[in-house]
Design goal:
This protein has 363 residues and is α/β, with parallel strands linked by helices. The protein has ten helices and 13 strands. 34% of the residues lie in helices and 20% in strands. A hairpin with a 5-residue loop joins strand 12 and strand 13. Helix 3 packs across helix 7 and helix 7 crosses helix 8. Its EC number is 3.6.1.-.
């Protein structure tokens, strides 16, 4: 069956409120509408083109007008945009994002990469069929909190777990203030509980093999998302999801599945880290010194909590590691911005000098 996004004859009215369109967005779009543009939500981005949904149906649109060398500014799944309707539709402007999942670019440059935009709920998938990677869970939660959306942890594959209750308790210590649901797509365990926690635009986040796509198919009520097997020895899988794609949920709202994340670099995620390590942040307020490094300083409330068994050394090490990484990423970004400003100024100065020389030769 041909996709409606590639069938130019396909046309039907769509209620964009199903996709998250609000009165606030409508007000922000007023100027674009007066210019003859129509609102569209990006469903999927693919090599300079995107699938989008509009009030008149799906459209396959060009993205050339929105090109940017900075991945942080590139259109992504979940963005709301202004579309110029024609025989060759084109997106010409993005509406401001109210939330976004941003990680450090996989290229190790100083740019950030947006994984999904305008989201309300981030479901972090953690497989119970593989050894728990506490550091990875903390990283994913930092991304989720920093996005501005509400994180939820879904412990998947409960039917394959040796001791689901023990892992649940371990994850509880990693995720203060986060709802945690133990699920099984195979048996349907607590899928209704997870569904009740979802609202608006939901993103599935996690490594390959965590069961994101299988979980998504249960939420969607049909096999829409590609799934694959995982290696028994480590629970890792191949990237069966290769694009971020937005799909309507039958109970309301939309779902975005994401490719499995191997690299989860932090990008300006200070707020997210404060949420993930909120107990350390609270303890630090009672340290004798305001700049306490939580090492050998006297009167360190964090070290006191470790001695009392209220906090683990691993948790503190992870906090330090992610803080260092985030600070380094922020400093690289600042250096890049300074270099860009310097290069722009040099270009302007060079242009002015060339102009003055030309005027001098003419006089």
């Amino acid at each position: 069956m041909q996709s409606p996004f590639t069938d130019s004859s396909f046309s039907t009215d769509v209620d964009l409120s199903q996709y998250g369109w609000t009165e606030a967005l409508d007000s922000a779009f007023a100027e674009h509408r007066r210019a003859g543009l129509t609102p569209a939500r990006i469903v999927r981005v693919d090599r300079g083109l995107c699938d989008a949904v509009t009030e008149h149906g799906p459209a396959r649109a060009a993205l050339s007008a929105l090109y940017s060398t900075d991945p942080l500014l590139a259109p992504c799944t979940g963005d709301w945009a202004a579309l110029r309707p024609s025989s060759d539709p084109e997106l010409v402007a993005l509406l401001p994002r109210r939330s976004a999942i941003v990680r450090a670019s996989a290229s190790r440059s100083s740019h950030g990469q947006v994984l999904a935009a305008n989201i309300d709920t981030v479901v972090v998938a953690v497989s119970l069929a593989a050894p728990l990677d506490a550091g990875r869970v903390e990283r994913l939660l930092a991304l989720a909190w920093d996005s501005g959306a509400r994180p939820v942890v879904a412990l998947t594959k409960a039917d394959l777990a040796a001791d689901a209750d023990a892992v649940h308790a371990d994850v509880r210590a990693l995720a203060p203030g986060v709802d945690i649901v133990t699920t099984s797509a195979a048996t349907g365990q607590d899928m209704d509980v997870l569904t009740a926690l979802l609202s608006g635009t939901t993103v599935l986040l996690g490594p390959s093999g965590a069961g994101k796509s299988t979980l998504g198919n249960v939420l969607l009520g049909e096999d829409v998302l590609a799934t694959g097997a995982v290696r028994a020895q480590d629970g890792k899988g191949r990237h069966t999801t290769v694009h971020r794609e937005l799909v309507l949920l039958p109970g309301g709202g939309v779902l975005i599945d994401t490719p499995g994340l191997r690299g989860i670099g932090l990008y300006d995620a200070a707020d997210g880290l404060q949420q993930v390590f909120s107990e350390i942040e609270r303890l630090a307020q009672d340290c004798r010194f305001g700049d306490c490094g939580h090492d050998t300083e006297p009167g360190c409330a964090v070290q006191d909590a470790i001695q009392a068994g209220e906090l683990t050394e691993r948790r503190l090490r992870s906090h330090r590691k992610l803080q260092r990484e985030n600070t380094w990423a922020a400093s690289r970004n600042d250096a890049r911005l300074r270099a860009e400003r310097t290069n722009r100024q040099k270009a302007i100065t060079g242009h002015l000098r060339a102009t003055y020389k030309f005027r001098d030769r003419q006089s």
